[in-house]
Write a structure and sequence with these properties.
Layout: H1 5-9, E1 14-15, E2 19-23, E3 27-33, E4 43-47, E5 51-56, E6 59-65, E7 76-80, E8 84-90, E9 102-104, E10 107-109, H2 112-130
Antiparallel strand pairs: 1-2, 2-3, 3-8, 4-5, 5-6, 7-8, 9-10
Length: 157
């Protein structure tokens, strides 16, 4: 089996003071740098449909209303190498037109260039899913790709 689209094509990260976040059609990934030696018992993480909070050793690192809704029961967090917290949120709306412009409603927005690259990547990922025999991981896209690109589903095959 081949690697997932985002592993073959790379990710488009949005940098933040505490780490970075990026997205695929289905998920939002959040990577938070924490002091080396952090233990899981030092971490307090709450993941709800439209809200997230993360504190390490009593210090709030991330808290607020998410840009869009997520599937609460499918959100997870892990502590890796005692220095990185990785949070994975499952989007409720999983189409290419649902490209988050920021992680939280009013914080951690992608700059316009990064937002453009994120939308391109989601559109190519959509094309990959619609055409499983083709590899779009190295493809470039221009033109109408905003909101997930053109809809070819009504064309006859």
């Amino acid at each position: 089996m081949s690697a997932p689209f985002e592993e073959r094509s790379g990710v488009v990260p949005c940098g933040t003071p505490w780490g970075r976040w990026y997205q695929t059609l289905e998920e939002v990934f959040i990577e938070v740098r924490v002091p080396p030696g952090t233990r899981a018992k030092d971490v307090r993480c709450s993941l709800r449909s439209r809200h997230i909070s993360l504190a390490v050793c009593g210090q709030e690192l991330l808290q607020g209303k998410l840009f869009d809704s997520t599937v609460t029961d499918e959100g997870t967090w892990t502590l890796e190498d005692r220095q990185l917290i990785r949070i994975i949120l499952m989007k409720t709306n999983r189409d290419a037109g649902n490209c988050w412009t920021s992680l939280l409603e009013n914080e951690y927005a992608a700059d316009p260039w990064v937002q453009d690259q994120m939308q391109r990547k989601l559109t190519l990922e959509r094309f990959q899913r619609e055409n499983p025999g083709f590899d779009f991981s190295g493809a470039e896209i221009s033109g109408n790709y905003s909101k997930g690109g053109p809809d070819f589903s009504s064309l006859e095959k």
